Structure formats: C-alpha cells, structure tokens
Amino acid sequence: MSKIIYWVHTSVDGFIDGPNGEFDWPVMGPQLSAYSEGLDKGVDTLLFGRPVWEMMVGFWPNAESISDDPHVAAFAPFWRATPKIVFSRTYQGDEWTSRVITGNLAEEVAALKARPGGGDLLLTGGAALAAALTELGLIDEYHIAVHPVVLGGGRPLFAHPEHRHNLRLVDSRALDGQVVVSHYRLAPA
Questions:
Q1: Model pTM greater than 0.85?
Q2: Domain range spanning residue 58?
Q3: 7, 62, 113, 129 - which has most CB atoms within 10 Å?
Q4: What is the per-residue pLDDT across 101-137, written as a single tens digit (0 to 9) for each?
Q5: Which is nearest to 42 in space by CA: 139, 138, 117, 119?
C-alpha cells in the first residue's frame, strides 16, 4: 500500500505563507535540499491542492530559466516527469495536470493508496488539503520544516482541524544550521 507523505515549510509562528501569500522566506540550503530530494526517492505521484498547484505550475515547468539554484536544478526534472494530481472542486486542469480529483476525497485517496505496485504519494505544501486528509487519517508521514522566521500572519499550517490528532515523533534534526525538520507519524489511537 502506498503512503501519503506531507512535506511542508512553516514559519516559527506556524504559517505556511505570509499575510499577503508571500512564500519568499524558505531558504533551501544544501542539507535541506538533500532531505527534500530524499523524500522524492520512493514517490511516483505528486499531490496538490489548488492554491499550491497554481504556485507550482507558475514556476516549475521553466524553473531552470528562472533560477540557477542547485535545488531547482535537481527538483525541476523530477517535478516535470512525475504524474501530478490536483484536488479541486472547480479547477479543470492544464497541460501539466495528470488528473484532477473533484469527488469524494476519502474514496479517491483510499483508491490512490491501494493502487497495486504504486509508489508513495507526496503532498507538497498547502493547508486545507492536508487538514482534510489528516481528519480522514490518510496522511502516513508528516515532514515539517520550521524556518527561522516569524511571519505574523498568513495561512496556518493546519487549516482549522476539527479534532485532535496525536503525532509520534520519528526524527528531528537541524539542517543547514537554521531549519529544524521534524518527521512525524500519526500516533496509534
């Protein structure tokens, strides 16, 4: 059975973007980049909510012409080659979207996880989709990178969960001398 891995960057005060939607604050040093690239190894499908998708599709198709960052050079080919699923009730898709899921979230995601021979699924960023999948108990691993910045507002890491969800710490480490990445799994009920 495939796992869903949630990989997200957050500020110290728990926001995934700034008060005006800005996402110019994460710094991808060599260790953080290597950690991110390590998560990609068993992944065969990328998952996105619509807000993150619009940001991603605005950058990654031509990323190397925009940035000469080593992380960009490593991730862009993977992003382009990997099937991408967008979850949205209204989005119709585009040339980079492999599939748009509009139906029953629990059923659709359970079917994705149960694909025979499927690799893992990587949910990158976002808050609403991650919160919905957490409520349904469908995220298997959480990898949260806390950056040394206080944003003072923006979208919270988890968009208004309805219930408490206890996590179990698997690993935590400081990378590049500034970013703390913690790896969690859902704790048994």
A1: yes
A2: 18-122+133-171
A3: 129
A4: 998 999 999 999 999 888 999 999 888 999 999 999 9
A5: 119
